[in-house]
Write a structure and sequence with these properties.
Helix 4 packs across helix 5. The longest helix has about 35 residues. It contains seven helices and no strands. The protein is mostly helical. The termini are far apart. It is elongated and about 85 Å long.
């Protein structure tokens, strides 16, 4: 066998070596495909996300983080009037300004009995917000983009979809917050009755 044969005379490896060579090609192919996807994102959504994050951080600095924290403390007040603030406004602002997963830290201003409900509202909102504000949870963006691709193929606009997604999400997190608060209150009462 001539080790210095030209490239056109080398046969494809067979057997075990062929399987290893095929596996190696497949392995590097995965990374090549990932690089192509990443390169596509760099020309698409990635610059938008960087600009959005910069704008939101600038907005937080202009408003002042202490004012956002004050809203969290006010939302902890008892009474029905504070339900929309606690389970719609606060989760929206937390997800918008702090993004996922930092948004959940806003619950620290609430009493223990409200924390599970706030968390449920906030964690349920990290997906619906991505249509209009993809910076809030870029990890969930692929779900919205999958739905958006189908809507675009139908020839419909994405603005209406994103707005409806956002509004329905607000209604859902409000309901979830109230239900979770009610369940938490029952569990706390049951625990105190046993003690």
């Amino acid at each position: 066998m001539n080790l210095f044969a030209s490239a056109d005379t080398v046969a494809e490896p067979e057997g075990v070596w062929g399987a290893i060579a095929g596996g190696a090609e497949y392995f590097i192919g995965i990374f090549n495909q990932g690089g192509e996807v990443f390169f596509g994102l760099m020309g698409g959504i990635l610059p938008t996300l960087v600009v959005l994050l910069t704008a939101v951080n600038a907005l937080i600095r202009l408003i002042g983080p202490e004012k956002i924290e004050t809203l969290g403390k006010k939302a902890a007040q008892p009474g029905l009037i504070w339900y929309p603030v606690r389970y719609m406004v606060l989760p929206f602002l937390a997800v918008f300004f702090l993004t996922n997963p930092m948004a959940y830290t806003m619950g620290r201003f609430l009493p223990e009995r409200f924390k599970p409900a706030f968390y449920d509202s906030a964690v349920s909102y990290v997906h619906p917000i991505t249509g209009l504000f993809p910076h809030a949870n870029p990890g969930e963006l692929f779900v919205y983009l999958g739905i958006a691709a189908g809507i675009t193929q139908l020839g419909l606009g994405l603005g209406d979809l994103a707005l409806r997604f956002l509004l329905v999400g607000l209604v859902v997190i409000f309901i979830r917050g109230i239900v979770t608060e009610w369940i938490t209150a029952r569990m706390i009462a049951r625990k105190e009755a046993k003690a």
